[in-house]
Amino acid sequence: MVQAPQRPPVHGPTFIRLLASLVDADVPPFPPSLADHLGRWLDWSHAIALSTALDGKPAPAEPATHDCGSEEDECARIRRSLAGAIVGDPKPTSPSRRAGGQAGQADAPEAVDYPMFRQRHLSLQRSMQAATGELRSRLRDTLAGKSVAMTRLAAVDAAMEAALSPREQSLLAHVPDLLGQHFERLHQAASARVASTSPDAWLEVFRRDRQSVLLAELDVRFQPVEGLLAALRTC
């Protein structure tokens, strides 16, 4: 019996490995280094801003009114709130149910269309982006009031966010499309099975996979926040 060749394992963050396991796409097992990526993503204006932040001699800002403990608590609270929104995200309501259709029609696998999932996914992504952006700005303000070194670090983070955030958002915007492909494959595989005791089991599999991807994306978005918090702990 001839076996299909197995795809090589993908190395990298959980977010990347999860997506690679769900989509039928060729992902390099060893992605380019961060330095290679930065060389392509930073244009001359961003490079100048980053160089200025690294080489400048900033004066300490006014002392911030927030301490490390309060910032830790606020970041943890917001992260729990976002994770709760992901885990508690309700199952989308089908058009037939919203229009007063019969319950049996709404419960059928075909009654749930992917655009409903996509709309909710984009909404959760916007919430994560807004929350982490506000936290980074707040933490930079707090760091800038600690010392010259922390002021420089805050300036570097601001320059990096301005340079990389558009690229990050562009890449993350493709995630709903990739999950849409996963949705269709699961749906087609379930439809191909003649007899099934749980015809909508594939939908629960998709919902769990989507939830895992969103939680992994939340981890990625919080990495800069965690870095700033780590710096604040040393003050």
In short:
With 235 residues, the protein is mostly helical. It is built from ten helices and no strands. The chain has a domain of 135 residues.
Annotate the secondary structure layout.
Blueprint: H1 14-22, H2 34-41, H3 44-55, H4 68-87, H5 95-98, H6 103-107, H7 114-144, H8 148-172, H9 175-192, H10 201-233
Helix pairs in contact: 1-10, 3-8, 4-7, 4-10, 7-8, 7-9, 7-10, 9-10
Characterization of the model:
Pfam families: DUF3348. This is DUF3348 domain-containing protein. Residues 84-112 are annotated as: Disordered. Residues 97-106 have a biased composition (Low complexity). By secondary structure, this protein is mainly α. It has a domain at 67-86 and 121-235. The protein contains 10 helices and no strands. The protein has helices spanning 14-22, 34-41, 44-55, 68-87, 95-98, 103-107, 114-144, 148-172, 175-192, 201-233. It is elongated. The model is unreliable at 1-5 and 94-110 (pLDDT under 50).
